[in-house]
Amino acid sequence: MSAWLRGMQTQQQASTHTLAAYRRDVSKLLHYLTQAGCTDWAELDRERLTRFIGPLLGTNALLPSSVQRLLSSVRSFYDWLAAEGHVSHNPAAHFRIKRPPRELPKVMDVDLINALLDAPAPEEPEAARRWKRDRAVMELLYSSGLRVSELGHIRRPDYDASAGLVTVLGKGRKTRVNPVGRKAREAIAEWMEVRPHYAREHSENWLFLNTRGDRLGERSIQRALEEQALRVGIPQHLHPHLLRHCFASHLLESSQDLRAVQELLGHASISTTQIYTHLDFGHLSRVYEQAHPRAKKE
Q: How far apart are CA 175 and CA 172, in angstroms?
């Protein structure tokens, strides 16, 4: 298992988070096979795999999406075992479970986002400084459609204020460059004025810092957004991924350029981006009525 994970890290550049998930998934299989009295990976067959997966779904021990990821991990591991000559076939190669209906991402309307981002700063000095940081975070999430992990790892040299560009390291350790809108650039400039209040001798060159001078981590960003939404009076539960959804939905609604939105989101497959086409069905209906020869109105 360790050799397989090392290969995933060096050859596929899998992230630490992904490697940890793979290890957890295959460790579950290892525990199951050990309990079943197996002494070799080759003893896993379709029947044993069914007995391993079935209870995880039947008892709601894992969400279907988590079981899908577990199966993907097992499939990848057994592909490697077969390539190394440890097994003769991959029992998970054609093993499938029924996919649950994919939920549409929830989005905020533009007026609600404007009410959030244009809210006045608190009067208390420290709270006002924190608002400048948190508003810059929210503006950047909404302006550039970043994942929270991408935003949390931006260093100051990664952000080019004059060009209005930010460079981030996305999934699969793929680098991409996204534009940063005017409002986000203004908010970041205001944050940079108060950033010295947060910086310490040990602080690294992260763009966003917490009150201890360390990198503003993903969980801290989540809490900051929840607190600011509560302060402003936003009724909808605010989280970083919601702003990414809003970015994608609002941009697609205006531009109708699915391929460009895919690139900006850093999606490897356009099928992942296509979920946002369901959010603007009214526009799609109008396009259909105007363009299809048998749908055009006389």
A: 9
What are the backbone angles phi and psi of residue 283, rounded to the nearest 5°?
Answer: -65, -40
* Model pLDDT for residues 188-216, shown as the tens digit of each residue: 999 999 999 999 988 889 999 999 999 99
Choosing from 48, 75, 183, 267, the catalytic residue is: 267
Q: Is 183 a catalytic residue?
A: no
User: For the CA atoms of 23, 24, 25, 26, what is the dihedral angle to 10 degrees?
Assistant: 50
Residue 142 is among the residues annotated as catalytic for this protein:
no
The CATH number assigned to the domain holding 65 equals 1.10.150.130
Active site residue 195: no
How far is 218 from 131, CA to CA, in rounded Å? 17
| Residue carrying structure tokens 């070799």 | 40
Where does 162-217 show beta strands of DSSP type E? 165-169, 175-179
Indicate if 267 belongs to the active site.
yes
Note down the domain range covering 242.
110-284
> What gap in Å lies between CA 149 and CA 239, rounded to an integer?
13
46 tagged catalytic: no
CATH number of residue 176's parent domain: 1.10.443.10
Lowest-confidence region among 34-48, 128-142, 266-280: 266-280
Intra-chain end-to-end CA distance of the chain, in Å:
66
Per the rule left: phi > 0, alpha: psi between -120 and 50, beta: everything else, 95 is beta
Q: Tell me, yes or no, if the pTM score tops 0.90.
A: no
From the list 31, 241, 278, 286, the catalytic residue is 241
Residues 119 and 20 in one domain: no
